[in-house]
Design brief:
- 47% of the residues lie in helices and 15% in strands.
- The two termini are 34 Å apart.
- It has 28 helices and 28 strands.
- Strands 19-18-16-14-13-12-27-28 form an eight-stranded mixed β-sheet, with no helix packed on it. It has a seven-stranded mixed β-sheet with strand order 20-21-22-23-24-25-26.
- The protein is of the alpha/beta class and 844 residues long.
- α7 crosses α17.
Length: 844
């Protein structure tokens, strides 16, 4: 959906001052078959053997030659039919020749990743020295939880290998696309992206040549356009053989100036402005990135045709008036002729490509934006589809890998929707009394969403219900943010104070876009899960078609439209009383909720009203935030982090988001260091104090009381790692007694049964089983606690075998009912209505 914004200008071209599409005759579709043939052929031939590629080229050329030869020999029986046959022969021959060109281009590009020394070294996992040329901006991998720790953050660099040297073998010259993965080296916080922002590897510019010693490995998980992954030890920094080209140095200076100009802005503006202007999303946090995905606003985070369209429209004025005396662009206002304006537009196109990097996504944006706006500027709508088809054809021939790119597919679908469907929908809405500007905006967002939603569902297994309103709200701020951002980019090298002032002005619309994304994503019904397959995409397409057909009839009945809009609003907002009445969640009077956060722990203890004590935060901020939001918890007197493993603390920012948090209590053993640092950063950013808890402490919040059972104040001999240093709590909530064991291992569990607190452990109502129900449990503690209900938090299909069959058997043998989040979802414990210590459990 990267060219969605272009619709505003496209639709405006349909006003009375410009030519009407129906007065120009039927749409010219002659270039569509060649474009589709190029696309399909390239997608198939990229992984075909060279023999198949050659065969397709020869066959296509021969058939085209036969058609072109035979067309002149058609008998002149009927002039009209002969002319049509000749035109058809020309069209088929042109399509076949385009397919032959696509097969040749795809065969050559595909061969680059299969031939030569690089794939050989990758299959052997060999070490070698390579000379590489950087082809794209370096980027950091996103922090992610892997088991109980955070996977190290690495620097990723796309490059072409030019020369390979291996011990005992001759130097070989080649050209193969690879992905460099720079290991974090000896940094103190290898799992934090913040600790890598000053890495010299991130400062490398495209076209720089490096000499690296690396271990070669096959490309996996969607890296089929790379011949290998080169794993490089980054401790010594990059060794440059040749510096970047002059245009790339200029682009780097401009991009660096924009980053400096936005340095003092708010976090959202500092992250978004470089993304809106030049596609630099290195500062975008995972949480903000997720919000943009859930609201289908990701096209604003990448360089797209909309960016370029906005700039050209600023220069040319409204596209339909580009050749008229009353055109209102910047160029005519200062007296620049149309021919000179065209030259300036070409220069602007070149500058856009240089500054935003000449990689395929930027070239796609420039091409789509240029041809579409050029067609609009002529006032001839018939040329819109041919212009789009030309862009597809040329771009796929230039880079056949685009034929397999979901981003390219979304871009083409969105552009096609905006140039064809949106004007008709806008006209229909105006006929029904919708104001013109609102009709244009609604038609733009609706058309792009209708055509792109099935593909988005394949990628995210989710359908956004707030995409259209969020795009409408963000649309108003996108143009000013982009224009002011480019102005800050241009002025930064010569007048940094002025650039900072302009960037400050641009921060307001940028923050508005971020707030729209956050608000939309925070709505309980912002989206629905959908099968992430092409069968699911087809089903969504069918549903969309039915909705459109029904909606067309509903437009004749305003009251029905209003009722449907109200129903959709209730589905998205999901007011808590209505949600509870329909779904039964959260159950009235709940005392403890074990959130379903995957392979990790997160519990909420009710403390009255909208207040709850949180014990552990799970591995994902979004999951724990969703859980707390579903419970209506907005005030948290205390967050207890039992220990610092990532599957218990990585979601802390989700707990802190938008809530009043009184403090964070942690264990005394500060390991692992990277997660301790992450917790400290999150607490400092939220202004929440950190304290250590130890055995013997007693606290109260409303009717909720808890006592810390472990770890002892001065430590204990059995504490040899983070698990055995877990905070264990005995909780009393009303009539319920709950034992929460964190991830305690058998040595600490046995020590706990011998401690003075052991007398309070007998006969608890609910046990939070230690360490996700692993096999490492002390039978004595299980017998002593003798719980009626055992809760286990584990991830579905986790690779650790949690919960262990032996643990489940031991709990059930002791008379406990066992429930687990991987099968039962989120679990809420409620005292039974009949009293007598009865327990009821609601699943969500």
């Amino acid at each position: 959906m990267s060219t969605r914004t272009a619709v505003v200008h496209d639709v405006r071209a349909s006003r009375p001052a410009t030519s009407h599409p129906r007065k120009e005759g039927p749409t010219d579709l002659r270039l569509v078959p060649p474009a589709l043939a190029v696309w399909a052929t390239a997608a198939v031939m990229l992984h075909a053997s060279p023999g198949w590629a050659v065969a397709v080229v020869i066959a296509s050329v021969l058939v085209a030659a036969v058609l072109l030869t035979a067309r002149g020999r058609l008998p002149p029986v009927r002039r009209g039919s002969t002319a049509r046959a000749r035109v058809t022969a020309h069209a088929v021959a042109a399509t076949l020749l385009c397919a032959a060109a696509a097969a040749a281009s795809a065969g050559l590009h595909g061969a680059d990743v299969r031939r030569g020394p690089v794939p050989e070294l990758a299959r052997e996992y060999a070490r070698a020295v390579a000379e590489v040329e950087v082809t794209a901006d370096p980027r950091l991998t996103r922090p992610r939880v892997s088991g109980n720790h955070m996977a190290p953050v690495s620097v990723l660099i796309e490059a072409d290998v030019r020369r390979v040297e291996r011990a005992g073998a001759a130097t070989r010259t080649t050209r193969a696309p690879v992905l460099l993965m720079i290991a974090p080296g000896d940094r103190k916080d290898p799992a934090s992206s913040a600790g890598h922002q000053d890495s010299p590897w991130l400062a490398l510019l495209p076209s720089t040549r490096l000499r690296v010693e690396a271990r070669f490995a096959p490309a996996m998980d969607g890296g089929d356009r790379f011949a290998a992954v080169l794993r490089v030890d980054g401790r010594d920094g990059p060794r440059a053989v040749a510096g970047p080209s002059a245009p790339q140095r200029l682009a780097g200076r401009l991009r660096g100036g924009l980053r400096e100009a936005t340095e003092d802005l708010s976090e959202d503006a500092r992250a978004l402005l470089p993304g809106l202007v030049v596609g630099d999303i290195s500062r975008v946090t995972p949480e903000l990135d997720q919000a943009f995905h859930e609201t289908d606003l990701t096209h604003t985070l990448a360089v797209s045709g909309s960016n370029f369209t906005i700039l050209l429209a600023l220069l040319l004025g409204p596209p339909g008036l580009a050749q008229r005396a009353e055109r209102r662009g910047l160029a005519p206002r200062v007296g620049i002729s149309l021919r000179t304006t065209a030259v300036l537009g070409a220069a602007l196109s070149l500058a856009f490509v240089v500054v935003c990097r000449p990689d395929p996504s930027v070239l796609r944006a420039a091409a789509c934006g240029s041809v579409a706006l050029l067609a609009l500027a002529t006032g001839r709508r018939r040329s819109l589809i041919p212009a789009l088809a030309t862009a597809v054809l040329l771009l796929v021939l230039y880079d056949p890998w685009l034929a397999r790119s979901y981003g390219f597919l979304l871009s083409v679908l969105a552009t096609g929707a905006l140039l064809t469907v949106a004007p008709r929908w806008s006209e229909g809405l105006r006929r029904r009394g919708v104001p013109p500007r609102l009709a244009e905006a609604l038609a733009a967002a609706g058309a792009a969403q209708a055509l792109c939603a099935p593909v988005v569902a394949v990628l995210s297994a989710r359908v956004s219900l707030v995409a259209i309103p969020c795009n409408l709200l963000a649309e108003a701020a996108l143009a000013p943010a982009t224009v002011l951002g480019f102005l800050a980019l241009a002025t930064a090298p010569v007048a940094m104070p002025l650039a900072k002032a302009v960037a400050w002005c641009a921060s307001w619309p940028a923050e508005w876009i971020a707030q729209v994304a956050r608000t939309g994503a925070a709505l309980p019904g912002s989206g629905v899960d959908w099968p992430g397959s092409w069968a699911g995409a087809a089903a969504l397409g069918a549903v969309t078609l039915v909705v459109l057909l029904v909606g067309r009839r509903l437009l004749r009945h305003p009251w029905w439209c209003a009722a449907c809009a109200l129903l959709l609003a209730l589905l998205v907002v999901q007011p808590r009383p209505l949600t509870r009445a329909v779904t039964g969640w959260p159950p009235p009077g709940w005392r403890i909720v074990m959130c379903d956060v995957g392979q990790g722990d997160a519990l909420v203890l009710a403390a009255g009203g909208n207040t709850g004590v949180v014990v552990d935060a799970g591995p994902d901020p979004l999951l724990v935030d969703d859980c707390l939001r579903s419970l209506g918890v907005t005030r948290v007197p205390l967050v207890v982090l039992t220990h610092f493993h990532a599957d218990h603390v990585a979601g802390l920012t989700g707990v802190l988001r938008g809530r009043e948090v009184g403090g964070i209590g942690t264990t005394a053993l500060e390991e692992p260091a990277d997660q301790v640092a992450a917790v400290r950063r999150a607490a400092a950013a939220a202004g929440v104090p950190l304290t250590r808890v130890a055995a013997g402490e007693r606290r109260r919040a409303g009717d909720l009381t808890w006592e810390v059972l472990w770890p002892p104040p001065g430590g204990h001999p059995v504490v040899e790692g983070p698990n055995d240093a877990s905070v264990a709590l005995l909780v009393r909530n009303g009539s319920l007694r709950l034992l929460l064991l964190g991830d305690l291992e058998p040595p600490a569990q046995r020590a706990l049964t011998r401690s003075p607190a052991a007398r309070d452990l007998a006969g608890v109502d609910v046990l939070k089983v230690a360490h996700h129900g692993s096999a490492y449990q002390d039978p004595g503690l299980v017998r002593l606690a003798a719980p009626r209900l055992a809760l286990i938090s584990a991830g579905e299909d986790n690779t650790y075998g949690h919960p262990a069959p032996s643990t489940l058997a031991a709990l059930r043998a002791g008379g406990a009912e066992v429930l687990r989040t991987d099968r039962d979802g989120a679990l809420a414990v409620v005292p039974g209505a009949g009293g007598d210590g009865e327990l009821e459990v609601a699943r969500h």
